[in-house]
């Protein structure tokens, strides 16, 4: 059975909601999935996963959330060949137009150094996800699963 891990950081609950929605969608496609809070993520988190997902918000002026900093710094050093990755970001383009989902962009770049295959395009969500975002998130999950086949 295909295994997925979703590492997420959430300050307001928006990204946690997104991660939980992703979890439901993976389960609907018969993927064994585990949510991992940022504080619990380490360099071995994706070791047993076929699908590696990071869902994050962006802190302050385009910064990685504090509880994901160590994980982010260690990610490019991981050898994730044969695995599929994807990144989802939530943000507020009105408050932070210059840094909208910057942490997600940075995570996607870091994943590119691991040897993993990009399974789906980066998804940027304005604050909490809505019905339109659900369509995009379902397509994200489907693409990730198809990329492992």
Can you put this structure into words, describing what you see?
With 149 residues, the chain is α/β, with parallel strands linked by helices. It has one domain: Flavodoxin domain (Rossmann fold, 3-Layer(aba) Sandwich). The chain is built from 4 helices and 6 strands, in the order E-H-E-E-H-E-H-E-E-H. It has helices at 14-28, 69-74, 102-111, 131-148; strands spanning 3-8, 32-37, 51-57, 84-91, 117-118, 123-126. Strands 1, 2, 3, 4, 5 and 6 form a 6-stranded parallel β-sheet that branches. Helix 3 (102-111) links the parallel strand 4 and strand 5. The longest helix is centred in the last third of the chain and has 18 residues, at 131-148. It is globular. The N and C termini lie close together (11 Å). The mean pLDDT is 95.
């Amino acid at each position: 059975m295909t295994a997925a891990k979703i590492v997420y950081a959430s300050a307001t609950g928006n990204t946690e909601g997104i991660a939980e929605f992703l979890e439901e969608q993976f389960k609907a496609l018969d993927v064994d999935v585990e949510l991992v809070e940022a504080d619990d993520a380490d360099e071995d988190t994706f070791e047993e996963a076929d699908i590696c997902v990071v869902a994050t918000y962006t802190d302050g002026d385009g910064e990685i959330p504090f509880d994901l900093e160590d994980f982010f710094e260690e990610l490019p050093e991981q050898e994730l060949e044969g695995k599929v990755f994807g990144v989802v970001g939530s943000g507020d383009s009105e408050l932070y137009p210059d840094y909208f989902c910057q942490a997600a962009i940075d995570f996607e770049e870091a994943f590119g150094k691991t040897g993993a295959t990009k399974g789906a395009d980066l998804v940027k969500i304005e604050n909490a996800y809505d019905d339109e975002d659900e369509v995009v998130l379902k397509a994200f999950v489907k693409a990730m699963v198809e990329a492992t086949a």
